[in-house]
Structure formats: structure tokens, C-alpha cells
Automatic annotation (TrEMBL):
Keywords: Cytoplasm, Exonuclease, Hydrolase, Nuclease, tRNA processing. It is an enzyme of class 3 (hydrolase). It holds the Pfam family HRDC. SMART domains: 35EXOc, HRDC. Its EC number is 3.1.13.5. InterPro entries: 3'-5'_exonuclease_dom, HRDC-like_sf, HRDC_dom, HRDC_dom_sf, RNase_D, RNase_D-like, RNaseH-like_sf, RNaseH_sf. PANTHER family: RIBONUCLEASE D. This is Ribonuclease D. It catalyses: Exonucleolytic cleavage that removes extra residues from the 3'-terminus of tRNA to produce 5'-mononucleotides. GO terms for molecular function: 3'-5' exonuclease activity; nucleic acid binding; nucleotide binding; ribonuclease D activity.
Amino acid sequence: MSASPKPARHEDIRTITTTAELAEFCELAKAQPYVTLDTEFLRERTYYSKLCLIQAALPPSSAKGEGGLAVLIDPLVEGLSLEPLYDLFRHKATVKVFHAARQDLEIFFHDAGVLPDPLFDTQIAAMVCGFGEQVGYETLVKKIARQPLDKSSRFTDWSIRPLSDAQAQYALADVTHLRAIYEFLADQLNKTGRAPWLGEEVAVLLDPETYITRPEEAWQRIRTRSGSPRFLAVVRELARFREAFAQERDIPRARVLKDDALIELASTKPLTEADLGKSRLLLREARRGEIANGILAAVKAGIESKDLPKPAPDEPGRPGNAALSELLRVLLKAKSDEAGVAPRLIASAAELDAIASGARDLPALHGWRAEVFGDDALRLAGGEIALSAHNGAVKVVTVAG
């Protein structure tokens, strides 16, 4: 691992404000094995994230980890085209390095339909390398780059110009330290032979389906207590209306209808604006006008629908599966400790419950996860193996046929 790149001084900060400057930087990046990237954005008042700043850094220019051009790219400047950056994203010879890339990639996909390939996500790589679950950038900076990280500008409104020196330094730190983190984690993955594991995870981030939200599927993300098909039909239609309305007007879902209000309306099934006025949870602006009309139409469609959703099978924790779910949790902990991988990266609690209930088409049972945990999980569920405590550790024991 090379020495940690030194953070940029004030006089080193370069902000790209023209397409020509961006093209020049991206040509330099194409000659490098990797480039580190990050974004700053706002989403409080919109459905889609508003891109406010892009940070990028090239590898260190010396064996001491010094230098290596780092820049800020200002997408809010009128006339600046990001096409040179997107061309870099398509350039296969340069790895694009992000930390916790999903939200960054969602922005680029919705803005231009492009995703950076090849991609390296240091958060996922760190979980594969045993740094814990959802490990934060600050933690990796301290443990790998061994540098302090100033987070005083964390809650900045990045749409305001000009940026202060502190904001610029904060933003650049998100890509300058990332170089040392990437080099360390890439080396670890190569040594352990786990680079293909990261590849499986990155494939999900590079799948356009990851970033497409279809209104007709939005209801599946809403947690409800009732499994009544008619109730779920109304939930489906209300969620469909809310998602489409929010997307078309680029406003947050909660500005249209919050989840608790949606569930209340699915239960009470209002038919008139007067009925909407009785809601305890509905926003005032949703009791009349376009939103009110949309809500009433959605409720009516749900009531009259002949295509009723089916309650989700294999409900977590249902009688007969709770004990097996607990055994699977113990197995997961033992296997994750043995492999040095964050448990949550292997399987979620919901997946364990689903396995216990008989589900088999799950990520935890395929690919590298099957090798580490899934195969034994199925054997445990099938009564082929048991768990035993030995010298304070959990061991897998084959059950005699």
C-alpha cells in the first residue's frame, strides 16, 4: 500500500467550470488505472436528487503518496456539459472508485442513463474484507489512511455559491483519502481471492433496474399489518398514484402522501372530499385539488379492482419457523466470523426468516454467499447438519442418516 496522499492545501484547490477543462481532466484520468469520485447533492425538496458538486482525484504522483491532481467539478455552472465525465465512465481501462456508490450512481443514471464501469465500491469492499456492516468513510479514513477527517461541513447546502474554503476542503477530502483506501482494499481482495465477491455485488449497482422505480411496484415497499387482499389493492393504487405524481412533478413522496396517511386511507377508503377531511394524518393540501382527486380515484380503483394482490407468503416468524430462524442466525454469525465478512452483507434478517419458511430464490443462497453460508443454511434447514458448541465456538456437525 502506498503512503496516504496528503490533503490538498487551499492553493491546490482547482474548480472545473468549463466543458473544456472537464474534458482535459478526464483525458488525464483515462491514462490512469483508477480515479476516485464522489458527489454532493440535495434531495430534501425534490424526488430526484439535485447534483450540486462532483469531486474527483487521480492516483498519487509519487511513491510517497504526494500530489495526484484532485478537482471539484461544478455542475451548476451554466453551459458546463458533463459528457466528458460520462465518456470517462464508459472508459473500461480506468476503474471508477466510489464509497457507498448507490446514491451517486442513481443521480448519473437518471440524469444521463450512464453508469461508471468498471466500478469499485469501497464500502462493499470493506464489508467483504471484515471491516463491519455499512462501514462509514470516516472509519476507513482513520483505520486505513490514518488521517483525521473534518466533518464540520457535513450538513452544507451544496447548492449555494460560492463555496467556502472549508466546504471545498471537506469535499476534496472525500476523494483524496479514498485513494489510499482503494489501494489497500484492492490489495486485500486480491490476496484473499475475494475480488469476484465484490464483482457480484457491483453487478447489482451496475444494473439499470436498481435505479428504476415503477409506480405499479411502489406498494411493495410499504409495511402493512393487514394481509387483506382488498386492503392491499387500495394500498397498491394509492402508492401507484403517489409515485407517479411525485415523479412527474419532481417532489418528495411525503409532500404528496406520507406512508402512515396512505395506510389510514387504505383502511377507511374515503369516497368524497368530505371523507378526506376526516383523515387524521392527511396533509391539508392533499384534502382538495389534484392530490385529493388522485387519492379518491386510486381508492375507487382499489375497491373495484379484480386483480387483487396476494398476501406475501412465508411471513417472517410464523409458527413453526421461529426456532429454525434462530438457528440460522447462529449459523450466520459463526460463518461470518469464520470468513471475516460482515453478516449483513451475507444475509438479512428477512432472508433468514424466508429461508426458514421455505423460500429458496434468495441472494443468500447463490454465488459467493452460498459458498460461505447458503449451502450450509439449506443443509441445516433440511436436517442434514446440526450446530454444536465446542470450546466457546459454534461448530457444524453432520447428522448421521
